Amino acid sequence: MNFTKLAKPMLMGLLACLCSLLVQAQTKTITGKVTDRKDGSPLSGVSVTVKGAKTGTQTDATGAFRINVPASAKTLVISSVGYANEQVSIENKTSIQVSLGSVSEQLSDVVVIGYGTRKVKDATGSVAALTAKDFNKGAIATPDELLQGRTPGVIVTPASGEPGAAATINIRGSASIRGNQEPLYVVDGVPISPGGTTGNNTSLGSSSPRNPLAFINPSDIESISVLKDASSAAIYGSRGANGVIIITTKSGKGTGGFQASVSTGVATPASRYNLLNAQDFLLAVKKANIDAGTSPADAATAVQLVDKGYSTNWQDQIYRTGINQNYNLSWGFSHKSTALRLSGSYDDIQGIIKSSGMKRSTVRANLTQKFLNDRLRFDINATYSRVKNQYPPLSNNAGYQGSLLGAAITFNPTYPIYNPDGTFFDPKDGNRNPAEMLSYFNDNDKNNRFLTNVSGSYELIKGLVYKATFGYDKSTSERFSFADPRLSSNAFGGTNNVFGKDLGNQIEGNGRGTKQNLDLKSVLVEHTLTYDKSFSNQVLNAVVGYSYQSTEATYAGQVGWGLATPVVKATDVFALNYSQFKNFYNFVPDYTKYELQSYFGRINYTIADKYLLTATMRADGSSKFGTNNKYGYFPAFAAKWKLLKEGFAANSLGKIFSEFSIRANYGKLGSQDGIGAYDAVNLQQTYVGNSGQPETQFLHQGNPDLKWEQSTTTGVGLDFATLDNRLTGTIDYYYTKRKDLLFYTPTPGGFSAQAFWWVNLPGYVTNEGVELGLNYSAIQGRKFTWNIGYNMSLIKNRVQDFNVTVNTGAVNGQGLSGAYAQTFANGYPLFTWKMPTFQGFDGNGNARYAAGGKDQLQGSALPTFLAGLTNSFTWGRWNASIFFNAVRGFYEYNNTANALFLKGSIKTAHNVDYTVANSPENPINPGSVSTRFLEKGDFVRLSNASIGYSFNMKKSKVIKTLTVTASGQNLALITKYSGLDPEVNIDHQISGVPSRGFDYTGYPKPRTITLGINVGF
User: Fold this and answer.
1) Cα 142 to Cα 156: distance, rounded to the nearest angstrom
2) N or C: which end of the chain has fewer CB within 10 A?
3) What number of helices (H) and strands (E) belong to the chain?
């Protein structure tokens, strides 16, 4: 055997082993996993490098990594775009767990997107996420007040300042001619029905319905997600055309403990009308009569006739300082497989007008329970609320007298409140004593609502989860309105037609009561399959589902009048008991039911945490439509490209930006809002009438070809972060085109039984806009921080290819019956004003108008610019914030001035403000609809300011946290608008066509100061 040949390879192998052992002695292997500190989710594509060296790797789709490092290495640097870098010691370690915290909270926030969640930084559509730190502070009556002015593209316009009043919420503009403009509200996964009572007070006219979100305690809300574009809202298909607002309530967290809060506030009118006092009023009456051609002697006689010798400030008789109280108590915990939160609240919000307010009691329970190693999960969310509203005698369409506020404006300041015998003073001239109206009208309702969502989910195989959901929404409302028999027909305003029946003069000496009942029930059943899979550098999330929702509504109304026991003297008591009346009349009852059946699916696909794709499809079938068009199909697509993940961009843009992503989206949405449950079919109703016999009436002719209103949206967006993530922002551009507009119009050639039916109009409405949202950490010191948030929106609305004349916006006032002020015109925005152009007064005090007094298009009630600016500060244990919002580019019609503030009013002894009294107007000049009363509504408002202090409770064994706060709302208003407030929207619709931008003796906005204390046990 040749040992030389054998020894050589053996020696080489031995040397190789020695070298390998030497290398192993100089290196070691480290494994680990990187997760998001906020929610524990794995982070892929995270860079893992040795500090001071170029050695590195990246985490895979599960967040795991494996790296060989020199044995002398002591620290690993973990970094990812949008997160703060972490340096982790690896001395004497072979495995580590790392969680990264985002410097930019905005990019790491988790947003609910419908049937799932998504990090904001991974959202392909335009989605806004608001949490408690973003909400408006103070006395918050309804959830929409939390987000007012806080999100680009979202405008919240309260109908009035009344507690619990409805608000008009538009997401990226208004688009429907006849249909509902409101977004879809989803509470804990359940799309909710409007709820509340009717908007008819049956005394003075119609009033706006209550806020559909009034049953929710704002303190129970964890987050609000706003789905703005088609790609994000398409999962809700036919109900997402106006955007979607998803409200998620708080769940159990921590090891358990009680949380209690108490707040109280005072509310006063933010502004009042500058009305003439008694002395100036008499001088103005004399001058107005002389200016109208009356001789000085006759003018003096006229003054003597109206002068009763008193000096009464009638605004003082209707306004008050409202006291607001709020109490909250909650308890919750989260441990292993169980999370539970229980809460209760009570609110008592007094309105700044006497006999107005809202009281709300709520109880809520949220429970999550998991079994079988967390593969089986049950969730229960349940809310019960009881809301009581007290309404003052105000309405949207009370004629030229303007109900309570109109009476307070115009009533003679020399009149007394009471007669010598204690009864209310009544001049018997058609004017209304405001104090009498408040005392002798009583209008209250009570609303009980139960909303629950019960779901169960089971992980069939790894990553595949089946979920079944049952939602139930039940509300019952009862409203009673009473008019005292001592209320004169003058003070009542001559409104004797109730529910379509002319009762004649059946109030003075008889009294009247009305009862309205509204019951709503909605049942939701959904089944979904969700699949999550990570493989290589790719992540797949897919959901498919089926949804069925049934909604029923029952309405009944009745009026009673005539008392067995007369009520005449001031000391007599008029019992608020509906059964005391002798005569009753039943309104034709109403019952509706409609169903929606849907199939939907969505795929989110991510490649290398660089390319994010979303595809959504929903098919909706509605019982509202005829046989030819029951189903609508609504697809959507979106993509996002994280450019800094690309080498070419990282070397250039990476020097400036730490986050730079581009989004694009396209989608279709539908709408069935505006049409009734049976508007596509021929409908007649049979009921038992007041005669006791069955009665039948034909309601309308149906249109079997009626189809969905469709909205198509395209958009692009940019998400960025710079200055070491201190400055983050989003920029969005969108273009929305809405066609097949639903409208109620005369039937072709007329129809013998019913002359109107529903059709799809030709033409379309477009909304084009740009949105900007910025968040800047101006100062991030150890003791002092200053954060700035700014959002703005530019919106352009247009009606295109529209050859139909549609007018709306009824104007109230003496001699203005049938007058209107708005139209929908081709090439112009929705809610364009149409009226003559006022050019001042001539030498005789008569109005002059351009173009011979012909109607001209004058601008729109829709704003073109929205902005919000928030400054937040912390200093040690102190915190403070101040919030401004601005709205520009819209016009408001001051119908209050048109109806009440005329020189002719003072001639007839109706009070006016000083501007009118000193104007050159001729007292016999008519108050015609014109731009004289059309004003720019632009404003800047100091909407909210707050300051708080958190006490150090480390030494306390009972109290864990203690915070006190003070906040103010509606603190200052900068505007040239002559009314009380330009941010108001009194409903002046005509034949169901909505209006926008009317101000007519609406409930004024309060200025509120609130003090609160929050204690954790």
Assistant:
1) 12
2) N
3) 14, 52
The two tokens of residue 245 are 């607002």
Q: What are phi and psi of 397, to 5 degrees?
A: -140, 55
Name the β-bridge partners of 944. Answer: 883, 969
Of residues 164, 193, 190, the one with CA closest to residue 475: 193
Distance CA 920, CA 930 (A): 17
Phi, psi torsion values for 284, nearest 5 degrees: -70, -35
Token representation of residue 679: 């508007």
Cβ–Cβ under 8 Å, residues 260 and 1014 = yes
Tokens in use for 319? 């306004």
* Per-residue 3-state assignment (H helix, E strand, C coil) for 848-873: EEHHHHCCEEEEECCCCEEEEEEEEE
Question: Is 20 a residue whose pLDDT tops 60?
Answer: no
Contact 343, 329 (CB under 8 A): yes
Distance from C-alpha of 323 to C-alpha of 1008, rounded to nearest angstrom: 9
For 701-754, strand residue ranges (E) read: 709-722, 727-746
Distances from the Cα of 306 to the Cα of 294, 322, 433, 881, 916, angstroms: 16, 34, 15, 52, 19
- Whether the CB-CB separation of 259 and 197 falls below 8 Å is answered with no
Please report the DSSP string for 75-93 in residue order.
EEEEE-TTS--EEEE-TT-
To the nearest 10°, report the CA torsion of 301, 303, 309, 314.
160
pLDDT per residue as tens digits for the range 91-112: 888 888 888 865 544 445 666 7
Q: For 553-580, how does the pLDDT look when each residue is reduced to its tens digit (9 = 90+)? A: 999 988 888 887 888 888 888 888 888 8
CA distance 839 to 927: 14
Q: What stretches of 39-188 show up as alpha helix (H) in DSSP?
A: 105-108, 144-147
Instruction: State how far the Cα of 107 lies from the Cα of 788, in Å rounded to an integer.
Output: 16
Buried b or exposed e, range 789-799, using 16+ CB within 10 angstroms:
bbbbbbbebbb
Asked if residue 618 lies in contact with residue 237, where contact means CB atoms within 8 angstroms, the answer is: yes
Q: Rounded to the nearest 10 degrees, what angle do helices 278-291 and 296-306 cross at?
A: 140
- Are the beta carbons of 643 and 649 closer than 8 angstroms? yes
First to last CA, the chain: 88
User: Is the sign of the CA dihedral 496, 501, 506, 511 positive or negative?
Assistant: negative
- C-beta of residue 355 within 8 angstroms of C-beta of residue 322: no
Q: What is the Cα–Cα distance from 78 to 67, expressed in whole angstroms?
A: 12
DSSP SS3 for 16? helix
Amino acid at 616: T
Whether the model pTM is above 0.90:
no
DSSP reduced 3-state for 997: coil
822, 796, 801: which is closest to 810 by C-alpha?
822
The identity of residue 661, as a single letter, is S
Would you say residue 855 has pLDDT above 70? yes
Give me 872's structure tokens: 């937040």
